[in-house]
Amino acid sequence: MEQKGLNKDNFNQLFQDQVLLPEDAPHRQQGITNWTLGFAKATLPFGTVYGHGGNNLGFTSLMALNNEKKWGFIIFTNADQSNLPLQLFMYINRK
To answer: What is the sign, positive or negative, of the torsion defined by CA atoms of 79, 35, 95, 72?
Structure first.
């Protein structure tokens, strides 16, 4: 969020839209509209959020950030295929 470690152009490229999801894509139900370079881009009622999550045997994680409002979070669970990170994401996306 403080744009350290990369020059301004490279930092901005991380958040540029690369793939527009079709209207019927399942991720659209969660507010995700695009993929950038490594992030899902979600357009939510309170702004644009970038995130990335994943699962490994015994663990689930999700990170999300809003550059404009300078907030973010990271969740790590010790559960296989936990839906807690997605539930939190859906909670902050409620209308």
So the answer is: positive
What backbone torsions phi and psi does residue 33 show, to the nearest 5 degrees? -110, -25
Conformational region of residue 40, where left means phi above 0, alpha means psi within -120 to 50, and beta covers everything else: beta
Predicted confidence (pLDDT) per residue in 40-71, tens digit:
999 887 789 999 988 888 888 889 898 888 88
Query: What is d(CA 34, CA 82) in angstroms, rounded to the nearest whole number?
Result: 24
Could you give the CA distance from residue 39 to residue 7 in angstroms, rounded to a whole number? 19
Helices (H), the chain: 8-14, 84-92
Mean pLDDT over all residues of the chain?
A: 85
Give me the mean pLDDT over the 10-28 stretch.
93
